[in-house]
């Protein structure tokens, strides 16, 4: 499992590096700056199950990045069996430090890959339908995660 986390981290790093040298040159925010520069919407439900919730981190700086204004969609790991978005927040910190918008998603546990990937689709469709409330750039989305969350992304889920 540790190897999977390392590989996913490397792939995500390479992908972000290839997207823009400008983002990598942005000075990282301190924990205090992140607290000041972000508004956080905790636990909006994207479907009926109590596990189908997300946290949305809205950056005051994201729009200033122009074509490099990415929205990061993150799914936690845990073998589709355990964990929670709140237990894995350390994995979204690098994106927050750069001032990107981040959506940290929970999915239904102990129900398998098909349910988890369906939840990703449901979450993306929710964001699209309710983007007037969040004003995310949904034209530049990076879906990422680790372990089960990374595999969920690999399944080729497309919203709508």
TrEMBL record:
UniProt keywords, alphabetically: Hydrolase
Pfam families the record matches: BD-FAE
Keyword set includes Metal-binding: no
Residue ranges of domain BD-FAE-like in the record: 54-151
UniProt GO MF annotations: hydrolase activity
Record carries keyword Nucleotide-binding: no
Coiled-coil features, chain-numbered ranges: none
Top-level lineage group: Bacteria
PANTHER family reported for this sequence: AB HYDROLASE SUPERFAMILY PROTEIN C4A8.06C
Protein name as it appears in the record: BD-FAE-like domain-containing protein
